[in-house]
Design goal:
Elements lengths: L12 E8 L8 H17 L1 H4 L6 H8 L5 E6 L3 H6 L4 E5 L2 E5 L3 E2 L5 H4 L22 E6 L7 H18 L2 H9 L4 E4 L4 H7 L2 E4 L11 E8 L1
Parallel strand pairs: 1-2, 6-7
Antiparallel strand pairs: 1-4, 1-5, 3-4, 6-9, 8-9
Length: 223
């Protein structure tokens, strides 16, 4: 047995996230992160995933029994409608479009997604942060002491939203989901204080960009 063998990752599964990033009019970093987080929640609460007989239910259960991975890819031109033709949920938000797909083995990604680039999705942020939506919404903050690409940040925000969905107080989570599962990416928060008060925190598995165990994101619900 390999020394790095992990039964929780045999074989690895992941949720694929596809970001529409046209050269002429790319979305901004924050909008992509917010859209990705909402898209993850909408997949997990979609009847196809949440209903007892839902066609995605078993895949979600299998994935959540392993190490939770998300892979962010970018699509432009004809590649975007090809991705949209596959089963999933698209969120359009503040100029960003992100489609999340039911999870599956990383060795069995549909060819329409497998051909999309993973590395290098790094977008500029808006000069002025957008105002938060009407409550209820999720607040996500990224660790200001680390540097990660937009693709990595989108995946971490997706992780944070997923943990909040699964671990937040049931009635508050239900109200958030019922209202559309809006997400606000907070900037310039007092990180150390927020870490103490956040409902959930994400620690990275260390597969890409940063060391394992690094705290990447925190989240809580604003009611």
């Amino acid at each position: 047995m390999r020394p790095d063998y992990d039964p929780l990752d045999d074989p690895p599964w992941a949720m694929q996230l596809v970001v529409r990033a046209e050269k002429a009019d790319p979305p901004n970093h924050g909008a992509v992160c917010e859209a990705a987080a909402t898209a993850v929640v909408r997949v997990l609460t979609d009847p196809r995933a949440a209903a007892p007989e839902g066609e995605w239910r078993e895949a979600v259960r299998e994935w959540e029994s392993r190490r939770i991975r998300k892979v962010a890819r970018r699509a432009r031109g004809v590649r975007w409608p090809e991705a949209e033709a596959l089963p999933g949920v698209t969120v359009a938000h503040a100029g960003a479009q992100v489609r999340a797909f039911p999870p599956g083995p990383v060795s069995d990604v549909p060819p329409q997604l497998a051909r999309l680039q993973v590395a290098g999705l790094d977008l500029a942020d808006a000069e002025e942060p957008a105002p938060p939506p009407e409550p209820p919404y999720a607040v996500i903050a990224l660790n200001p002491d680390i540097t990660i690409t937009t693709g990595k940040a989108a995946a971490q925000c997706g992780h944070a939203a997923q943990l909040l969905l699964r671990q937040g107080r049931r009635k508050h989570v239900a109200a958030w989901v019922e209202a559309g599962a809006a997400v606000h990416l907070a900037r310039d928060v007092p990180w150390r204080q927020c870490v103490k008060e956040a409902t959930v925190a994400v620690r990275d598995g260390g597969f890409t960009e940063i060391p394992p165990g690094t705290m990447t994101a925190i989240a809580w619900l604003q009611r």
